[in-house]
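Example with several molecule types.
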Amino acid sequence: MTDPAKPLVLVLLIAAQTLCAVVFLGDIIADFFGNAEHEPEGSHTYIEALATFALIAAIAVEIRILIWLLRRKAHLEQALSTAQNAVQEVIDTELDSWNLTPAERDVAMFLIKGLSTSEIADMRGSAEGTVKAQLNAIYRKSGCGSRTELMSALVDTLMGQRVRPGTAVQG
Amino acid sequence: MAQFPVWDPFVRLFHWSLALLFAANALVIDPDTLLHSTLGYVITLLIVLRLIWGLIGSPCARFSSFPISPSAALKQLRDISLSRRFAHRGHSPLGAFMIYNLLISILGLGLSGYLITLSGGAGFAWAEDLHEGLAAWTQFSIVLHIAAVFFESKRIRVNLVRAMFTGIKEIPRHRARD
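Resulting structure tokens for the full complex:
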């Protein structure tokens, strides 16, 4: 069975629900400001409006999930084995604890994969100066002084030598 | 900063006259008037000309330069989610979806409008429903289109509105993508 959490599936779902929301919203606008041709529907209109706004809220949540999914999958394209996924998960947890922006996180992933500053700039369509500033932010937020130190921190976590922030001592 | 000539004069003229005529017909002019249907035919003619131009026009105007591609659109969505700032020279993949959506919807508006005039006010109730539904959908699409243009202009730091006036996109070299 295919994974239902595929970005394309989610996009189609969002598109279909948006279509519905537009139809319902148009109907509600017509009810509220409508012409005399239609008889007033009274409180029924409010229930319709409530349901429509619930639908719009659901669409907003789905868009958030889509963004999260796209970010997560961006660096997972070649990771097919369970081990690779496990490593990715450890890295994700570590990066989560640094509170990086989406752009910094993307840069950090390329950094971990061993790309140089100019290569990262190429991959992201940014100027090298931008990437350097993002690298500095990553070092500052992670408390690591250099790429080597950052890699050591990750390897330490992978080997279970270091207690990960947030998962402190458990019974 | 590199300058890419992307929109030829026909594309620009088409875009702004379509925008103007559609806004007039949808928001200002009474649907029951002769003016509404006349403008409707002019708009339909504009769309037909654009369809022909999509086959023989300048490189960025051709349909072959902006195919419907879900995978390319997902790639653009991924770039958005990761704040990557690549700018497409011509139409972006998501933009392509919007263009085909608008071309088809507005063509449908023209055809359903023609059917309504054939019936002379009586019958063809489904054509009227279709016409009104398409009108609502097209207006929603245009709101989305305008919002997306401003969002993308800010994201990739390229003034897309100005490009539709001058025909030229100014994109930093390292950021340009075909």
